[in-house]
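Researcher: Go.
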Amino acid sequence: MKPILSIIIPVLNEAAIIQSILSRFQDSTGVEVIVVDGGSEDNTFELAQGKGVKTILSPQRGRANQMNAGAELATGDILLFLHGDTQLPSDYLNIIKDTLAQPKAIAGAFELAIDGDNWSLRLVETMVKLRSRWCSLPYGDQAIFLTKTVFEEIGKYADLPIMEDFELIQRLKKQGKIAIAPAAVLTSGRRWQKLGVFKTTLINQLIILGYYLKVPPIQLKRLYHIMK
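Model: Structure:
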């Protein structure tokens, strides 16, 4: 039976969590899962194989290229791009279908919940909610979804080393509504725990500012890794 939804998961050196990621989809109906490895130096690719999912090596490095490769292989009518450290809510398939059925919706994403007890993470979640709903600007860690037809018509992900999700959403906003689902994905707090909430948020905002100032994406990526 042809799947309704194709979940595309770009991964890189995620051997420690890849089996846990894929175990969440063992009993899914109407869903295919595509893992796209970006050239892992550990055994992520091998661990992902034989788990009832499609597993491929991206012909080119970079998350944008990985997601495009997964989308090309996908057979579902709807595509969802999922970060490896992010968990979908229960009943996500029906939530996605209902969200895309909203008037003028061309794409959608979930609200964001961050795994962790720090009060500052709740502040981040609130800011993300306001940004997503009032500015129609969800980020990639919110599990962006859209039909395969729209994805191909819009021109797929741009070949950027960073900010590929931001750039895609900007193009989609010109075509229709970015609908925010009435449910949240749960993402790992490891980034915020590693650097601290303030520093992580500051780095993200500086990269966005650099993007608006037309700093070359390759330089933004170098700056991002230096600041990390």
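Model: The first strand starts at residue 5 and ends at 11.
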